[in-house]
Design brief:
Distance between the termini: 62 Å
Shape: elongated
Largest sheet: 8 strands, mixed
Oligomer: single chain
């Protein structure tokens, strides 16, 4: 079962086009020969179709052709570089009043520049009929066989749960063995074709028997066999999908240090190749910058800035880009997990200088910095949930945290009224009387924002989590950091009237 799934995932349509001309150019027609690529389509409603390549998760148009009585022909002088291309159409989204390119099917230009492909309206691989190109015929045969195997495997999987499970499991084991043998044979017999070369490259490493830590081995050797000096991979969905699975599958739950370390290993494989490095960095950087869902991912972004952009290892970056990243990293690093939180001293609802409270000097192990806005609906919901949790634990005598609730509202009267009307039991502070700019100190760029500090007032959470997740988070934190379980708040020992409620 596992092997069938792996084969099917690997066989997602591989698309690549060889590069011509400059290092960042899309495939270009050569000066010699000619090409004549014909598609005959059943029940086609399109008037124009397009030929192109994949780039990341987008499509690039190379040529267009009109559809006449179900026939679409891309014909002209010059030969296309060997590779795999895509037949595309524009689909209109009436609600959004725009249109986007979608791929109908991929095809290969390998052994021939003149061939015909007949397809029905589903563009199913098993129903493709090819004339004049063995490379396309083999490719569709391979993909069609895998598609049928996946469907049968799914059917057998459902039967395994029924009374017929023994027979179904035997069939599934037999199917798995047959598909493993089929894949090996196809790759061995057709390794001269670009499509099968890429299937082999993108299939992932096999973990040897006897390896103790298989997940570590797999992610360490994940890029083995992939020629990361081959710039043609940039125009494939496979390189994009492989990176996507690596960072958002294999490394998704890893901590920031682990992600940074494995990013370094990947970069080592392409050191000095600025084209490939830029492709990878353009993929990584936007996804780790101020990630709102994943704890610690912003630390990965800062690490890459410090160790690559600021060390001159990204020559494509302009001086302005480097300067902006330097400033942003310095800003973000103040609120990274593990950093010491900066002490806030603010006035409570009386707004009197004599009634100022510290975010740090409290007799509680944990402090929850809660930046909220009374006009924000989500803030209202989560504040209400915090109140319920706070009061329940207080009544039980088990509350080990204080909520330092900062009114993120310029209208002080509105904030004070909300605190009074809803009886907020927290340390409620706000207004203009504050010792530092808390937005800069804690990277607060909206409400609600939650920061959790431990007994040493280090940041242990810099993402907003639901009130219901607070206790499970603290329990998990203390399991991972047992030295914190019995630790007392050191700031409470400081001799200062600030912070006494």
């Amino acid at each position: 079962m596992k092997k069938i799934k792996a084969i099917v995932i690997v066989a997602v349509m591989t698309v690549v086009a060889s590069w011509c001309g400059n290092a960042e150019g899309v495939p270009q027609l050569g000066k010699k020969g000619s090409h004549d690529i014909v598609f005959t389509l059943t029940k086609s409603s399109d008037s124009v179709l397009y030929m192109g390549v994949h780039f990341r998760d987008e499509l690039i148009v190379l040529d267009s052709a009109t559809v006449v009585q179900g026939k679409c022909e891309f014909k002209g002088k010059g030969e296309w570089p060997k590779g795999i291309y895509s037949l595309m159409r524009y689909e209109v989204n009436k609600k959004k009043k725009d249109r986007k390119l979608v791929s109908l099917t991929d095809f290969t230009i390998d052994d021939s520049q003149k061939f015909t492909i007949a397809a029905d309206s589903t563009f199913g691989a098993s129903k493709m009929r090819v004339t004049g190109s063995k490379a396309n015929k083999l490719m569709y045969e391979y993909l069609g066989t895998l598609s049928e195997a996946r469907a049968l495997s799914k059917e057998l999987g459902a039967r395994i749960k029924s009374a017929d499970s023994v027979a179904a499991r035997r069939q599934q084991d037999s199917l798995s063995e047959a598909m493993v043998a089929y894949e090996k044979r196809m790759l061995a017999e057709n390794g001269n074709y670009r499509f099968f070369q890429l299937v082999k490259q993108m299939s992932g490493p096999e973990v040897p028997e006897g390896v103790e830590n298989k997940p570590v081995y797999y992610r360490t050797h994940y890029w083995d066999g992939v020629d990361l000096k081959d710039h043609s991979l940039i125009y494939t969905p496979d390189l994009f999908n492989k990176m996507n699975y690596y960072f958002y599958g294999i490394l998704y739950h890893a901590d920031s240090d682990t992600i940074s370390r494995y990013t370094d290993l990947l970069m080592d494989r392409m050191e000095g190749d600025t084209v490939m490095m830029r492709y990878v960095f353009d993929f990584i950087m936007p996804r780790y910058y101020r990630s709102t869902k994943n704890i610690g991912w912003d630390a990965v972004w800062c690490y890459l800035v410090r160790n690559y952009y600021l060390k001159g290892r990204c020559p494509w970056a302009t001086e302005g880009d480097i300067s902006n990243k330097r400033q942003t990293a310095a800003f973000l690093e103040k609120s990274l997990i593990g950093a010491y939180g900066q002490e806030l001293i603010m006035s409570d609802t009386t707004q009197l200088p004599s009634r100022q409270f510290s975010s740090h000097r409290m007799p509680y192990k944990y402090v929850i910095l809660w930046f909220w806005d009374p006009d924000c609906h989500h803030c209202q919901e989560q504040t209400a949930a915090l109140i319920e949790l706070y009061n329940r634990l207080d009544k039980e005598g088990t509350r080990n945290f204080e909520v330092y609730a900062v009114g993120y509202e310029a209208d002080v009267a509105k904030w004070k009224r909300y605190v009074k009307d809803h009886n907020l039991p927290f340390v409620n502070v706000g207004g203009p009387n504050v010792n530092i700019d808390y937005q800069e100190a804690y990277n607060v760029h909206g409400a609600p924002t939650m920061i959790i500090l431990n007994a040493d007032r280090q940041i242990i959470m810099n993402k907003t989590i639901p009130a219901a997740s607070l206790l499970p988070f603290i329990e998990q934190y203390e399991k991972q950091h047992p030295e914190q379980k019995d630790r007392q708040p050191s700031f409470w020992q400081m001799q200062s009237p600030i912070g006494v409620r």
